[in-house]
């Protein structure tokens, strides 16, 4: 029964128009989310997780080893919330949602949105849940962008901020990766058709491209190496790329992918606020841990070092991983130790937090 509860996303329906950063509006906003555990009396045990590009809100499913029963973040000690992002395939309002003004799905008529809009939706959900402060806000990749944006927006009290494999603004390199994937999707003629399965072949190709930015030369050289030097076709690396593309097509849609990569491109903490260095410097009074992965080619570690250098008293940790960007989802044993030590040292008064030393 407990497992069934976790696997089912809850839904929050916002009663009103949702105005986006560009001034356009969504007449309806639905947010899918998972919550685990119970909020304590003083609301000091909230853990809020911001997920990455194609993940869903069931963090116990996709981040095992860090989240789950008996793990660092568990539903016995904490009230854990993960909200599915705006535009995603997994239950939050997205391009396949029905536009109430036309009674047909939006498809490519869905309005463009930004990381800032995703965070504004998170804030609405936090208000709905009665969350007035977040003990620990954590996210990697696009999830880290959300975490930093929320801290910069300063719309809710955050005690601990953990940003992993992310940046203060998306790089030209990252935008180029995303644009290349969108070109692949756009080259699929069905993407222009108003059908839920439009652009699937393009999405498969896009995922194959993306995977090259998530992993490393050495990882492929070990996991996809051929044992037969006589082979001239049907290589392991080829079938792996095709398999990974098919996997995403089975669980996601090209329209959400298109819009979410655009949202990632939009990420810039300095937009409308001034110099990004000063925006980071204004993130005060938050215990901050920034994690970089030296083998990450999509979000190279100098981007995390930049964040840590400018947020007052932030700590920087290098997570050495064979797997590149995806290391933040794989190296959970190391992350448990690093994050657990960080939280223990900063003693935020949360009860039952890894046998916290009372000051």
UniProtKB/TrEMBL annotation:
<keyword id="KW-0963">Cytoplasm</keyword>
<feature type="binding site">
    <location>
        <position position="326"/>
    </location>
    <ligand>
        <name>substrate</name>
    </ligand>
</feature>
<dbReference type="Pfam" id="PF00561">
    <property type="entry name" value="Abhydrolase_1"/>
</dbReference>
<dbReference type="InterPro" id="IPR000073">
    <property type="entry name" value="AB_hydrolase_1"/>
</dbReference>
<keyword id="KW-0486">Methionine biosynthesis</keyword>
<dbReference type="InterPro" id="IPR008220">
    <property type="entry name" value="HAT_MetX-like"/>
</dbReference>
<feature type="active site">
    <location>
        <position position="296"/>
    </location>
</feature>
<dbReference type="InterPro" id="IPR029058">
    <property type="entry name" value="AB_hydrolase_fold"/>
</dbReference>
<dbReference type="GO" id="GO:0004414">
    <property type="term" value="F:homoserine O-acetyltransferase activity"/>
</dbReference>
<comment type="subunit">
    <text>Homodimer.</text>
</comment>
<feature type="active site">
    <location>
        <position position="325"/>
    </location>
</feature>
<comment type="similarity">
    <text>Belongs to the AB hydrolase superfamily. MetX family.</text>
</comment>
<dbReference type="GO" id="GO:0009092">
    <property type="term" value="P:homoserine metabolic process"/>
</dbReference>
<protein>
    <recommendedName>
        <fullName>Homoserine O-acetyltransferase</fullName>
        <ecNumber>2.3.1.31</ecNumber>
    </recommendedName>
</protein>
<keyword id="KW-0808">Transferase</keyword>
<keyword id="KW-0012">Acyltransferase</keyword>
<dbReference type="GO" id="GO:0009086">
    <property type="term" value="P:methionine biosynthetic process"/>
</dbReference>
<feature type="active site" description="Nucleophile">
    <location>
        <position position="141"/>
    </location>
</feature>
<comment type="pathway">
    <text>Amino-acid biosynthesis; L-methionine biosynthesis via de novo pathway; O-acetyl-L-homoserine from L-homoserine: step 1/1.</text>
</comment>
<comment type="function">
    <text>Transfers an acetyl group from acetyl-CoA to L-homoserine, forming acetyl-L-homoserine.</text>
</comment>
<keyword id="KW-0028">Amino-acid biosynthesis</keyword>
<feature type="binding site">
    <location>
        <position position="207"/>
    </location>
    <ligand>
        <name>substrate</name>
    </ligand>
</feature>
<dbReference type="GO" id="GO:0005737">
    <property type="term" value="C:cytoplasm"/>
</dbReference>
<feature type="domain" description="AB hydrolase-1">
    <location>
        <begin position="46"/>
        <end position="318"/>
    </location>
</feature>
């Amino acid at each position: 029964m407990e497992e069934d509860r976790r696997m089912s996303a809850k839904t929050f329906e916002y009663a009103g128009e949702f105005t986006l950063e560009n001034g356009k509006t969504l007449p309806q906003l639905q947010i899918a989310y998972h919550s685990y555990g119970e909020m304590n009396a003083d609301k000091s045990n909230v853990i809020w997780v911001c997920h990455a590009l194609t993940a869903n809100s069931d963090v116990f499913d996709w981040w095992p080893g860090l989240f789950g029963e008996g793990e660092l973040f568990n539903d016995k000690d904490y009230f854990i919330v993960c909200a599915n992002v705006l535009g995603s395939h997994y239950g939050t309002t997205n391009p396949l949602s029905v536009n109430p003004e036309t009674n047909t799905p939006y498809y490519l008529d869905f309005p463009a949105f930004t990381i800032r809009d995703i965070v504004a939706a998170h804030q609405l959900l936090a208000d709905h849940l009665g969350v007035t402060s977040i003990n620990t806000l954590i996210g990697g990749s696009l999830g880290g962008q959300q975490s930093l944006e929320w801290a910069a927006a300063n719309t809710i009290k955050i005690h601990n901020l953990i940003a992993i494999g992310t940046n203060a603004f998306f790089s030209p390199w990252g935008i180029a990766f995303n644009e290349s994937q969108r070109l692949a999707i756009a080259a699929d003629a069905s993407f222009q058709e108003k059908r839920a399965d439009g652009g699937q072949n393009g999405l498969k190709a896009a995922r194959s491209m993306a995977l090259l930015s998530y992993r490393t030369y050495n990882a492929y050289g070990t996991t996809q190496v051929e044992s037969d030097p006589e082979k001239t076709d049907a290589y392991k690396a080829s079938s792996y790329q095709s398999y990974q593309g098919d996997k995403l097509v089975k669980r996601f849609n090209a329209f959400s992918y298109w819009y979410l990569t655009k949202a990632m491109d939009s990420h810039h903490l300095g937009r409308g606020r001034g110099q990004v260095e000063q925006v980071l410097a204004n993130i005060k009074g938050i215990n901050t841990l920034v994690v970089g992965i030296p083998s990450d080619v999509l979000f190279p570690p100098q981007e995390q070092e930049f964040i840590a250098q400018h947020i007052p008293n932030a700590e920087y940790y290098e997570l050495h991983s064979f797997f590149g960007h995806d290391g933040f989802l794989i190296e959970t044993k190391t992350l448990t130790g690093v994050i657990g030590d960080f939280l223990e040292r900063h003693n935020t008064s949360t009860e039952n937090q890894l046998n916290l030393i009372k000051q």
